[in-house]
Amino acid sequence: MQEIIGALTGPLTEEEKKTGFIERPIPPRLIGPDTEEKLQRLFYANGWTDGLPIVLPTEERIAKMLKGTSRLPDEVVGKMQASSVREFWSYTVERVAVNAVMAGAKPEHFPVILAIASTGVPSVFTSTTSFARMVVVNGPIRNTIRMNAGIGALGPFNEANAVIGRAWTLLSKNLGNAGSPGSVYMGSHGNNLNYNNLCFPEKEQSLPEGWKPFHVQKGFKPEESVVSVFSGHYLIYGDTLNNSRCSPPLGQCLYHESIKFMMENFRSVGPYRTVKATLLLDPTVAKRLKESEGFGTKEKLQQWFMENTFMPVWEYWTAYPKDFQAAKAGVEPLASWLKLPAETIVPVPRFNPPKPVEVPGMNLRDPISIVVVGGETLPVWYAGNFDYIASASVDNWK
Amino acid sequence: MRKKILPSVILTCLVLIMASHAHSQTPAAGSPTSATGSSPLNPAPMGVTVADIISCGSGYDSHQTYDIKVALLEIVRGEQAWRRIKAASQSNEPPRVGLEYILARIRFEFFARGKPGDCIYELNEEEFTAISSEGKEYKTPSVVLPNPNLRGRKLSSGDRVEGWTTFLVGKDDNKPLPTFGSSIWFRLY
After folding, report:
1. Domain of B46: which CATH number?
2. Is residue B52, in this structure, part of any structural domain at all?
């Protein structure tokens, strides 16, 4: 404390008295030649990697990567900040190419990586809550670069899925200043998903008739190639084998009821914060929901969850503190809810539908996103607290 | 036996990843931010449109990025600026001793870079500030502005607006630098 007081009340140093503008020194563009082993160590020691070995970004490899786009190397791709209190860093096509090479990407992957970079969303984020990210790829590019939307789509099996997601983290660290634990990155546990950020394509060819691909839901044409980025923390697994609601003696198992049961565990995070969710449905689940349970579109399923997934009364007081005050003041029916056991479910939607824009800066987004992916080996789904952020055209970066 | 170093493992690596990029007040020469108007060391002259990228959104995870184009179209300084400000509202106060008003007419364009592109962006007075020629920030005055007023305008993607904003600068400061968000810089001379 004494040190702080001294610093605040003591005379300014000569350095502190300086006025005007500071020009940041320009670091060298190239590192001198060395052995691969030493260069790998150098990159790791400087915090430029994700801890795994990288492909060293030589001039030759960068030049090859740049052939994956028609954009000029010095063109600005975007701006990124590690959090709202950090400065924005801007970056060019060439700098994204460096990170793409490091991740092991090929030139044909590069437009997808540029599209992700253009969103300005960092994959690693300064918050203490250890955010993860997800990127869903839609459109013809999925097939062109042979991404995997089938068996093991979210696992470590496919080159494009792996390196595109990895490149997002590398560029977030190196171009968005998002990756210095203890100074910029403050996630207490960190998040293993950040290694490749749940990068996968939607299995559009297996969508039930009437179910739109995710990018079409967001206003793109089916023939456009698009990346959509999400923010969250976790995925919860669900299936019909290990689900008590789908086992005898209950007999009938309704998939939408089972999924709702999982989604009721998603908690709001602070006052007036809407809960968000993303469902990753195996095509067999999507087919059953369409054909046997009457959900002819993704939107109908989203609407049903919004209208039928409620919250316990204790959470309602946390999420809506003004209503808690009103209840204490005797306003009905809220006052009666005060007498209910804390776990009693009250008819307040957990996933609020979008409202008209009332506050500048508030985005209109569906609170529930649905993506179809998987190998159709079992009726399974993941439900996660992932919140859709934005989509960007891949075609713009070809 | 002598250790053999294969040519393939002698590598020259680009270190672009750590090159200075970003803060507009500290641009690196040759970097994208050295473009005209992106630095106090290279402010844009009047009439030149400067492009940039900004974030729109609130909270941890809701921001989207937008392209903007900003141009300083006209300035009025000193007594003439005060007369116009006074005419806008009798409640406006004259500048304190040693200071004078600058009225600046600015064009601002706002475009979504992707979808959903539904963020509403409000231009507020904290974003338009002036920095003295010595690098110190002037306090932005809270006054009723002449019409059309730029402050408080709410922009949707595709909007292009023009209007006035104001700065309060030292009378003897010949080269104050108006800036938008410390990322776009203009010169008045």
Report:
1. 2.60.40
2. yes
